Amino acid sequence: MTVKSIDLGGITRHTASEMSADGEMHDVVNLRKKYGRYMPAKENEVLFVAGDAIPGTKDDYRMLYIHDNSGYEHWISYCGGALYLEMEKEGGELVAVGEKIADIDLPREVKSIGNILILVTSSDVLYFLYTGGHYTQIQDIRTPLDIQFTTEPVGKDVYYPHLYRYDNIAKVENDDTPVDGKILQALSDMKSEGFVGCQCLLRYAYRLYDGSYICQSQPVLLVGSEGMQSLYLDRYEYYGDYDGHSAGDNDWYYGTYAYKIKMDVAKNDVLYSTREVIESVDIFMAEVSPYDYTDRYHLGEPFIFTDEPDKKRGLSKYYPFAHEDRVQKIAETADFRLVDSIKTSSLNADVSRELDLKGKLDNLLQQDRLPDDEFSHNTVTANSAFTYNSRLHLGDIATKLFSGFTPKDFNIGQSRFNAVDIPLPSPAVADSNTVALSYIETYIKTDLGDAVVVSRAEGFRLRGINPYLSYPDSRAYKMVVVCLCGERDYVRFEFELKPNEFLNSACYINPTLDPIWKAFAEPGGPVAYPEERNAVERATNKLKVSALDSPFVFPAEQTYTVGNGQIIGMASATAALSQGQFGQFPLYVFTTEGIWALETGTGEVVYASQSPVSRDVCSSPSSITPLDSAVAFASGKGLMLLAGSRTSCLSEALDGKPAAMYLPGAWTEALGLHGIDCSAADTFLHYLGSARAGFSYSEKEIYITSGEYDYYYVYGVDTGLWSRRDGCITALIDHYPALYAVDSPGRVLDLTSESGAARAAAWVTRPLKLSGQAYKRLSRSILRSLVTGEVDCFIFGSSDGVAFQLVNRVSGSVAGKRDIVFGRVVKSYKYFVYAFVSGGGSEVEINGLDISFDDIYNTILR
Fold first, then answer.
1. Model confidence over 355-398: pLDDT tens digits?
2. Fewest Cβ atoms closer than 10 Å to its Cβ: which of 23, 111, 170, 308?
3. Which of 369, 401, 387, 400 has the alpha carbon at shortest distance from 547?
């Protein structure tokens, strides 16, 4: 007689029944192997019934996310086309809230950074700020501001705030006057009082709570009403003796032309509502300098003399550069410095005031500099999102190109510009120059061909178009401006845009620097806006990374190209210590061509390098699950484990179909009595196609679930064994260190808390050979165990390993019974299957099998 001890393993399907090792299992249901023995999993704690706290049908109910931040834990769900704060934790207990947050489309991804909830939809990235006990949607932070800058001349005699006696007659009698101390003093005095004496460019930008800037406006060119010059020369020639002068004497004076700047800002309820995110609208100025220390001023006009008592007065304007040089300097101007600010908390009303420039112009270069716009006007969405190191990562992105600044944005708001009188709307005619329809078509060269975007505006009175036109993308090459007045009269302009050498923009500057204007004289104007074309750029292999703690800003230098395939998902091989976790572990990016690792950088460098680590392709983004020091994911091979740069298959044991094995009806009846189904006929690879994964840190188990099946798989990381649990799981919610699930009845379960009774459980071995293919007769079998409760134990025998018959059975209700003993089996068989089922609430420990048997050899007479 031979005695064999068999340790019970996990579900195995990758070997033929004739070749399987004794101890491999055909099925294991609702059992967990721990401390070397199988024990029934217990009922998970039911936290609440999903959807009970919110209105609407449950057909489209989704438990989306747990927003956990300092001081609160919120359970966010979706139902009936709306987003809800369904539950929140108070004193360690979940309480129903049921507060509707917003009506939105079902999001693709939900993430958070701090108290900002982030939802990635098919068309945009939406942000919700939790403050004051409620979630408030952060309205489109790209909302434009209705702002108008105008100039107003200043001075004692309208244009002359300062006069300076000039004694060096020799320097002013020619047409080549060098800049010297007198002129510099005149300009410095003007600036110290906050007056602008040269042409300048103004921009505004939205300053966020972290000090970063988005949505920089178009540069607005401002010129004094008397033109480009900053200086004039005044000459007095005396007729006779006067005030100490003799006939023929001359007095020479330098003076400055100057203006102040006024801004008119319309009330903006959207920006006002975002005041906790957008703190202010900051105004920036760039001077187009009228001089440097080597320039020479040139008389732009001859002296124009006017007779006055006892003297004759002559006036000439001095220009710093030739006209074409001034245009070039404007084109090269890119250094914008902070000069004023408007708090968004004041935008619940109109704002109209002068810019506060005093004390800033004389040291403009010491003011804060405006960073260049990094496509912040564009609308970005993605198919994949991830938060890591307090940065939002978006992969497989689609970018809707900015429609552009409107004709209203470029409208000049004053009656005189660069010494040119602008045709004003007639006050006698109500609709004079009132634009009924206007748009700008901007043509942009993209990797996929030409794109055309269209900006729109209507209902404003056109006075003239600023001579500086721009679009915030250096790839733009043409702009068409159309304004319709009345029913059909219109004007149309077409301009060639050139890339700015210093800014991410393309611009057109009117060579005359005069306002762009012509009368509404062309009949047959458009009656509808044109359609945009190819305005969405798709970059399936691009990864955008936000600024630190600011999911609104995506710096251009933090856009990464990851291989050539489509980005499927992202993960980091570290336990998520928080939802804004910090770590030095690499970011794994899963693509349709394999997996890449992005190594974290230092300082301002987010990721220093990237390299491919595996050619395995993830087949289900929802299966990507970070473990303590690795990442699990589904592929065409099965469930994979990525550790460092190596991948291995965890589900090799489940390859193939469950072996055909027919057990008698007694086994099926026993399972049915306890509500257990051991008929997992589908392959694991097919199951993976619709599955998602989650990791229980407390039990070190990976859960593989699918709402299309009434069971789910569990992999023990420490044991390397597979088992199944019964029940249909429709959603998994990772929330370190917990793992939550929603089952088909809608119950929200804590998979890391098994506080209920033991579940009904069952296991079935694969055919045991014991000693090869010979026939065996069982003398005695002992199921090493400790049982309290109702159990049913079976031994089945077979000669072909397929069709089995019942050969022994032990059943009943026991209390504290150690070991279950089966008696002798009279008939001999080649294969034996052991099976076990325990009722709900039964306390069971299964340690293994001890089987005593004799080999039976058939002899043939010769």
1. 999 889 888 889 999 998 888 999 999 999 999 989 999 999 99
2. 170
3. 387
